[in-house]
Structures are given as C-alpha cells and as structure tokens.
Specification:
CATH superfamily: Gcn5-related N-acetyltransferase (GNAT)
Number of helices: 4
Shape: globular
Order of helices and strands: EEHHEEEHEHEE
Radius of gyration: 15 Å
Number of strands: 8
CATH class: Alpha Beta
Strand content: 35-45%
C-alpha cells in the first residue's frame, strides 16, 4: 500500500529496493547498515521500513520501529542527488503522521553530534534532546544525541 505526500509516494520497502537503498546508505553514512540489517527490518513484525519515490525513482527511505507507544526512527536517508529539495522534510512529516496513526506518544531517534544538518531539521520538527550515548557511533567514534518529539 502506498501513500502520497504531495509529489512523493511512500511504500513499504521490499527486497527489490535494496540495491538502491544500499547505494544511498553507503553514500550517506560512514558506518552503513548491511543488506542483512535491511532484510531483518523488512521481515520483522514491529518494523516498518519505507521508501520514498519521486516520479517513480527511489529518492529516500526510513526504517521505523514501533516499540510499545514509541516510534523509533532507526534509519533515514535521502539520495545525494535529491538533497536540499524538501524530501527529508516530507519524510519527517510522513513519519510523524505514521506515529499519530499508530497512536504513539512519541517519536525518538539517535543522531551523531556532528550531524548539524540533521539536528537542525529535527529541531524544526519539535524534537528535543533527552540524552546522549557516549561513543555510540563508529568510523569515526562519536557520541549520539537522543532526541524525542512528543505526539
């Protein structure tokens, strides 16, 4: 089932999407998820990995985990060629909408302390820092900021 958000279409990630997803993942992160990590998310009951398409082309994705009344953004990325076009903003709007539809009380995420672009985006959506994970990320080793948005 797919949903639209203006010029983007969102649908559940399938194994056939992984070639493009992995390309974007490797371009976006110094410590990327593996194909196996995405396959696990595709096959779990409490996860919702989704892709965003623009004119049929996969331009971004997210992996969401519903844990009790919390929606965790486990992964989110936009294709390098499509950045600064409002796609991350539309992904975030869609994620928050999913949290509301599933009666979640909050949306949470972890983000590198150095990822100022993402931090700015999340703050614009009302996310606040609620904690810090010391040396959470590898390549390079870096702290994670834990953020939450109450719904």
């Amino acid at each position: 089932m797919s949903e639209q958000n203006k010029d983007l279409t969102f649908e559940r990630m399938k194994e056939g999407d992984l070639e493009e997803v992995l390309r974007i993942e490797k371009e976006s992160f110094s410590d990327p998820w593996t194909k196996e990590s995405f396959l696990e998310d595709i096959n779990k009951d409490f996860t919702y990995p989704a892709v965003a398409r623009k004119d049929g082309k996969l331009v971004g994705y997210t992996c969401l985990w519903k844990i009790e009344d919390e929606l965790q953004i486990a992964n989110i990325a936009v294709d390098k060629e499509h950045r600064c076009q409002g796609i991350a903003k539309k992904l975030m709007e869609w994620i928050i909408e999913q949290g509301l539809k599933q009666a979640c009380k909050s949306v949470t995420l972890d983000v590198r302390v150095s990822n100022s672009v993402a931090l700015t985006l999340y703050r614009k959506f009302g996310f606040e820092q609620i904690g810090r994970r010391k040396n959470y990320y590898r390549f390079p080793v870096e702290d994670a900021i834990i953020m939450e948005k109450k719904l």
